[in-house]
Amino acid sequence: MSEKKRNYEWYVVQTYTGYEQKVEKEINMLIAAEKRGLEEAKQAAPGEDLYPLLRTVKVPMREIIGMTKSGKPVKRNEKVLPGYILVEMCLPQEADGTGAQKGWKDPCAKIRKIQGVNGFVGTKPTERPKPISDAEYNKIRLQTGEVKGDKAAFIQQDFDINDRVKITEGPFATFSGTVEEILADKNKLRVNVQIFGRATPVEVDVTQVEKI
């Protein structure tokens, strides 16, 4: 059976906070080592049905737009799931394999032994890990901006109600006012400004204002 037809699923590995990238690197080394081992095994036994159990590892990230003290936007990357990473695997139902092919115990044990790993979410060390559902995986993809090819930019809010701000861009540029409402889901602020002598609430993007 070809690799594409096999049932690869996503599993969640819990790590110590701050160890995500280190664990990701170690698992990538396991993936590379398994690939080399399979190539050698296929040469020794051309007819044997061999396939990689580990395929991909990722630390889900999203782009955050924060604000400097002067109110200028600054971009940075932030972990969507601090303390967790995703591993794509095709695990046999059997605990132990035969011949050159390993069962699920071998790759899972290697991952659990990596420094900084607490284990697979939802299972005991002696159990076969449980994958997350497609819906759960797609929720993570939405947060990272992978879905539809649009990278999501999340605003790290640093404003409070009644803050005095100046609008720097858009049709209301140069106007000053008071933050009336924070629309976190839209990355916008509703600011009360004086237009022709009247208090008027306007919606502006968080990146278009700076604190006074």
Description of the molecule:
This protein has helices spanning 20-44, 105-112, 134-144, and strands at 9-15, 54-58, 61-67, 73-79, 84-89, 117-120, 153-155, 164-167, 176-183, 188-195, 198-205, 209-211. A hairpin with a 4-residue loop joins β9 and β10 (188-195). It is elongated. A five-stranded antiparallel beta sheet has the order 11-10-9-8-12, with no helix packed on it. A four-stranded antiparallel beta sheet has the order 2-5-1-6, covered by helices on one side. The protein has a three-stranded mixed beta sheet with strand order 4-3-7, with no helix packed on it. It is built from three helices and twelve strands; from the N terminus they run βαββββαβαββββββ. The longest helix is centred in the N-terminal third of the chain and has 25 residues, at 20-44. With 212 residues, the protein is α+β, with helices and mostly antiparallel strands.
Key terms:
elongated, 212 residues, 21% helix, single chain, 5-stranded antiparallel beta sheet, alpha+beta
What portion of the residues fall into strands of 2 or more residues? 25-35%
Q: If you average the pLDDT, what whole number results?
A: 84
Task: Give the overall form.
Answer: elongated
- The largest sheet has its strands arranged as 11-10-9-8-12
Instruction: Report the total helices.
Output: 3
Class of secondary structure makeup? alpha+beta
What is the H/E order? Answer: EHEEEEHEHEEEEEE
Q: How far apart, in Å, are the first and last alpha carbons? A: 64 Å
Helix content: 10-25%
Low-confidence stretches: none
Based on DSSP secondary structure assignment, what is the total number of beta strands?
12
> What is the gyration radius calculated from CA atoms?
25 Å
Characterize the biggest β-sheet: 5 strands, antiparallel
